[in-house]
Structure formats: C-alpha cells, structure tokens
Aspartate carbamoyltransferase (Liquorilactobacillus uvarum DSM 19971), 318 residues
Amino acid sequence: MMMLNMQERLKLQHFLTIKKLENDQVEGLIDRAEYFKAGGAVPEFSQPIYAVNMFFENSTRTHCSFEMAEKKLGLQTIPFDPATSSVNKGETLYDTLLSLNSIGVSLAVVRHSKNEYYNELVNLDNTQKLDMGIINAGDGSGQHPSQCLLDMMTIHEQFGHFKGLKVAIVGDLTNSRVARSDMRLLKQLGAEIYFSGPEYWYSSEFEEFGNYVKVDELIDQMDVLILLRVQHERHQQEVTFSPAAYHSEYGLTVERYAKMKENAIIMHPGPINRGVELASELVEAPKSRFSTQMKNGVFMRMAMIEAVINGRGLGGKK
Ligand code: CP
C-alpha cells in the first residue's frame, strides 16, 4: 500500500522523460505496476476519460501495450491513424492535438521521429488553449520513458535492487532512445554501466555513464545484458552490413550465453533481429526476460497513465 505522500509524488502533468524522475518516484511506479500485475483493483474514475495513441513511427509493443493499459484502466481510446489523418494535409502536431482536445480527448500518447517533439505541446504561451496530458512513447533518438521504466521493473523483479548491479548496454547506441533512457536511470539508481558493440557507436556522450568494453571481456561479469536492435532505418549512410559478421563479433551467441553468470538476465526492447543481436534460440532461453519485459510494460504503462490522470485531476475517485 503506497503512503499518501507517494501518491502525491506520483501526480504528474505529463510523462515526457525520465530525466526529472527521482528514485522514490521510480520505486513508487514499480510498486504500483507490481500491484496491478498482482491483480490489484484498478482505480474507478468519476467521469469517462478519453485517450488517443498517436504513433508517427512504427510500433507493435509500445502502441498495443499502451492501448491494453488504457483498456485495463477503463479509458476510452479514440482511434488515430497518421496515414489517414489531416497531418497529411499539413496540419501541425500542435493543431492536431488541439483538435482532439477540443472534441474531448484529455490524454495523448505520442511517438514521433523528432527529438523532444513535445516541447511545442507543453511550453505554451498564454494564447494557447491545449489542455491535455502528453505521454511520450518515444521521441527520435531522445527518450523512451515507458520502455525504460518497464526495464527497471524487470531488473527489480530479478534482483530486488539496483545498487552495484553490473549492466551492459550493447549495440546501436548512437540511435537508441532506450540506451539514453536506461543508462541515465540505471546510473541514478546505483548500477554500474558498461557499453559494448561496434565501438563507432560509442561516443563522448556516453562517457559520463560508463566505459566501452569489448563484449568478450564483459560477458562473464554482467548481471544484466541489454541488447539493442541495429536500427538501419535511422542510419544516414548504410555501410555494408553483414548480419552474420555482426552476430559473430558483437552479438549474443550460444557460446557467449554459456559464459554468463548463473543469475544473469538478458533484455531486449524489441523488435529483435534474430541471429543478429542474439541467436534465435536464445530469444526464449531461461535467462531471457524478453516476454517478461513486454508483460511488465502493460502494468508499468497503467502506472504511468494513472500518474498523469491524477496529476491533471481527471479521475476523481467515485
Ligand atoms: N520497444 C519498442 O519500442 O518496440 P515497438 O517499436 O514495437 O513499440
């Protein structure tokens, strides 16, 4: 049972980034997500709450998981497809949301290719009337708050703490909003971060969070291995890419898996490139938490949505 103080600490106007979250709020969100996962009663809201999921980049997990979370919380979800929307007639993101807000939508879950797209939606001047909670479902190569928090929940379920855990983030660091979110929050929570994969994807940006180490030098030391998808769609100039060569040099092969610590876990935000980041037969191996991450995502997103509903006073207990 959360203390009243924590309920107050989990009232948020928007959920845009993990950068402003303090450790007690992260723990509170994990507690709340675990409560929902254990079958705890969902809050009853005194009025219908209408939400929209606006995914301007492709998604399977995040989109469907937010929709599931909304349904479990009893929200009404308004369909929105960017491909058939008036965005294609040149309507801005702000004006699109203003339209949805005007017809009664009070929560928007948004994924967009532009880093920090949300600034134009939340830093309003006094002539602007937009009054809705924005939940960031991924902004370019910036942040992926819900993936980060479901990752924290999954690690916490395994180890019960973060302090001193050795965590390697391996792969396409340059393009990864998951890496940028996870490294920051894991460091704040007391984990030791290492980076691996092709060294040209490691840059000075990552130095304050952890060092680069070759995968064969860290594999038997890590408690958590976070594998990142190679994001070809974000590469400006695609160099000749050999999936087999990547897998052999940087990927989690069956041989490397055998060297991992007994209690270690593997995570991957998905979608997985089988045979590239990891061997196909390891996707559902005992150390893999891929399915657990996706399952936890629904409950963490319920906790995040609830925090914004409470922060904006939309719910009001019946
Ligand atoms: N993890 C993740 O963001 O997956 P999707 O792109 O399928 O939502």
User: Anything to note?
Assistant: The chain has two domains: 6-140+296-312, 145-287.
